[in-house]
Amino acid sequence: MEPLIQISAIGAPLRLANVNTDQLFPARFIKKPRDVGYAQYLFHDIRRTDAGDINPNFSINNPKFETAKILFAGSNFGSGSSREGAVYALYDSGFRAVFAPSFGEIFAANCLKNGVLTARLDQETIESIQEELDRAQEPRVSIDIDQECITLPAGKVVKFSLEPFQKHCLMNGLNEIDLSLQFNEEITAFEESHRRTYPWTAL
Amino acid sequence: MPSTLFDKIWTTHVVTDRGDESLLYVDRVLLQENSFHAFDKIRREGRTVRNPNQAFGFSDHYVPTRNRELGIDGIRDPEIRNMIDLITSDTETYGIELFGLGHDYQGILHVVGPELGITQPGLVIAGADSHTSTHGALGAYAFGIGSSEVAHVLATQTLWRSKPKTLRVTISGERRTGVSSKDLVLFLIRTIGSGGAVGYAVEYSGDTIDELSVEARMTVCNMSIEAGARAGLIAPDQKVFDYMRGKPMVPTGTQWEKALAYWETLETDPGSVFDREVQIEASEIAPQVTWGTNPEMVADVTGSVPDPDVEQDPERKNRMTRALEYMGLHANQMIQSIPLDRVFIGSCTNSRIEDLRIVAQVMKGQTCRIPTMIVPGSEQVKRAAESEGLHEIFQLAGAEWLAPGCSMCVGINGDMLASGERAASTSNRNFEGRQGQGGRTHLVSPAMAAAASITGQFENISSYAEAGSWNL
Lengths: 203, 472
Description:
Low-confidence stretches of chain A: none
CATH class of the largest domain in chain B: Alpha Beta
Strand order of the largest sheet of chain B: 5-4-3-6-7
CATH topology of the largest domain in chain B: Aconitase, domain 3
Number of domains of chain B: 2
CATH superfamily of the largest domain in chain B: Aconitase, domain 3
Mean pLDDT of chain B: 97
Low-confidence stretches of chain B: none
Oligomer: heterodimer
Helix content of chain B: 25-40%
Largest sheet of chain B: 5 strands, parallel
CATH architecture of the largest domain in chain A: Alpha-Beta Barrel
CATH architecture of the largest domain in chain B: 2-Layer Sandwich
Number of domains of chain A: 2
Radius of gyration of chain A: 19 Å
């Protein structure tokens, strides 16, 4: 996984609450192998009209936000299913960070495992950032993961917070499995004791 | 210090702590066809599977519901066939038991886990599916994970977790006749919102929950994720112990006695403090019907579609307007005036034998007015229904009696709504395109779905049931 330390990129607003993983990445694409590239599936149906044309009113279809890597979304972003393809689609489209008032928990965990930052900002802050991005000629935003802050197009700095463990994983691009295997002795000891205490659970 | 059911399970599974996170031991991991990314990761990184006997594979999302006697050859779409091939070869390579196509115990992972005793009280269960919360009905801490975490469990038998907050939902009072556990949980989601329980592990309690059967409790826990909670739990009681006894993977003899003695301690101690409490009065709940594209968009069957114009919050108003547009409904339209095209009865929410018995009660001697698919949750459920003659009731009414799998709940095996088609569905998600691009889903209970099949619209099943007969 690539370490994520600083990002300077276009930020895009997505003014919708409860965006679910079916909207991020419709279920019919789950069976596609990853190497086909999942960018083509991101928001596949909601970025189009019911007739199937690209909807110019869907924010990230706006040429101004075409190269966005940072998303400022509504509450409960990424709710619904556990499909990690939703994160692959964001990642393959270039997104490296999503800010929202709240997240679907499985989605947020999946993001972390793929080097995509998710962090909560309150509703009011998100809305004012969304407005600024809409107004700005070049809606460029900088994120400093270590300092836990965002610099907005007009220069204002907004703080966010990350759990230290998650920050450590993101900034070092850690493969969590390698990290956990360092605890192999503890796991083995735990497992033996667990099986002695609850022998019926052993298979 | 008194502790909650959740705390008891958590504490007995912590291997080590690191900052805010704990390395949690995982007793069982449940896999499905979409786990192919996890196996790819295991291979790419050159890992081994630590305890293959603690992992179980299920072919459910992509299996066909028709022409099952043809086996894999019955699947025409090469991409869908590939998904069945992948779970078959991946589980074989790593020595993991698979309940695959043609297996006597094949079925939906959240139906098969409990019915085989893979699911037990006090376990930590991680599943490659968000509805893994279902297993909490037996007093397990069970939650959905993505592919990277599946790979992590396979390689280490653990997961890093920050401890969720606890929410107790107490449901009290007598349910009205015809009101099921599906109605209770839809009402809860309507009350707290689809993000209302994000960050919490939910414990359901109260006399209404106590009174529910074990299968009905699974329906409640199943939909915890639709309120944003990764896990929902219910303390195991005598009903659960009776349910467990004799299941193929449940201990016997002295091991059973030991297990039972432990399971009996798995309850929330009096005086335990939860981070949040929600109270629901069951007697006020009518049969529920979703009208929109999110499981919080719910109305009473006797009610109407809400009017976006009276909504003050612009973002909410916008979403309601879009939902009505997608659903082809208008503000203030009566729920009972919505004409339906199809009925789907199945999914990990409502495809167990008790669900099918209720459907049979409603359908007995009647004729389906609209196309109706009935998809049992597992081969075991299918055999049980057939031994009771339920399939004959369904078929005489004109419903299709199909083979087990996820089917039209997620529409990826090819069972789909056509664009514009409107269905009453016993499943768990009414998202745009969930049951097929352009398809319109109304979530309801099995009794409501069966009634809708007979008349082609939503019926207040409570009024029929209260009159002493399920017959419409």
